[in-house]
Amino acid sequence: MFFPDGRAMSAIATDLNNDGHLDIYVTNDATPNCYYVSNGKGKFAEEAMMWGVAFGEGGQGASSMGPVVGDVDGNELLDLFIPDMGYNCLLVNRGNGFIDVTAPTNLAVICGQYTGWGGILFDYDNDGWLDAFVANGNAHHEYTEEDVLARNNGKGKFIDVAVHSGEYFHEKYVCRGASYADYDNDGDLDLLINVLNGPAKLLRNDGGNRNNWLLVSPKLPATKMIAIGSRVTVTVGDAKQIREVVGVTGYLSQSDLRAHFGLGKADKADLVEIRWPGGRTTTLRNVKADQMLEVIQPND
């Protein structure tokens, strides 16, 4: 299936089927979304319907905005979170396809009254589970709306914590793009939100670094640039977290390219594994927490 008339709002290059090759997922406005699967030899096949990622909640072609990926349920597969007009979609990866868990995870209730644009999956409290942020704002009449911050409780539910998270969440704006970065390098992720008809908003995270953390920068040997397309896996005890270094995150936005991990109360990561573009791997053991770790891809 191919949609030549798709109204693309944003796209992300990421390995959704876990075969080591970057695929392309495109979100469209009022038309089905597209999932182009790479065969690793320069060819792509459109398989959105087959994988269950073509449509929004209820099966309709929704006004999908900026897609983001992350492993929200800890099964070592990348899931999709997609802001929409009127609701958002959380599509979890089961390996052979995706299922919509927007309602059972409580995100349908939290996000349902807003017009979502810039979505983010990030671990704002460093507890090891990816939380959700959405920048909201009416599309056509530019009515102001509150933004969403929802905490992942690690048990399959998201909890609305916006009202307890600072004065910004008590105000209304018309927002579009959003990105995260540890701009002050203190170990927790901060937010930058693009606001129509006004200045951008920089939200500093105060308190996320009460738990331990790790920032990993996988870099290419020649240029020392961060290796887009690399995947970092961090193991603490029986729990594994994955992050993929992607160039575009959400609606027309780019976030911190460093792979951020919340480690909870653990003072080290048992394993840090990097799968480089091309498939080679690097493994580090007993990595101390609370540091910015730079790893250069070996030449041999």
Report on this model:
The protein has 300 residues and is an all-beta fold. Helix content is 3%, strand content 41%. The chain contains 2 helices and 22 strands. A 4-stranded antiparallel beta sheet has the order 1-2-3-4. The protein has a 4-stranded antiparallel beta sheet with strand order 5-6-7-8. Strands 9-10-11-12 form a 4-stranded antiparallel beta sheet. Strand 17 (231-236) and strand 18 form a beta hairpin. The N and C termini lie far apart (41 Å). The model has no long low-confidence stretch (mean pLDDT 93).
Name its key features.
300 residues, mainly beta, 4-stranded antiparallel sheet, 2 helices
Task: Give me a quick take on this structure.
The chain is an all-beta fold. The chain has helices at residues 48-51, 107-111; strands at residues 8-14, 23-28, 34-38, 44-46, 68-70, 79-83, 88-93, 98-100, 116-122, 131-136, 148-152, 158-160, 175-181, 190-195, 201-203, 212-219, 231-236, 239-244, 259-264, 268-275, 281-288, 291-296. Strands 1-2-3-4 form a four-stranded antiparallel β-sheet. The protein has a four-stranded antiparallel β-sheet with strand order 5-6-7-8.
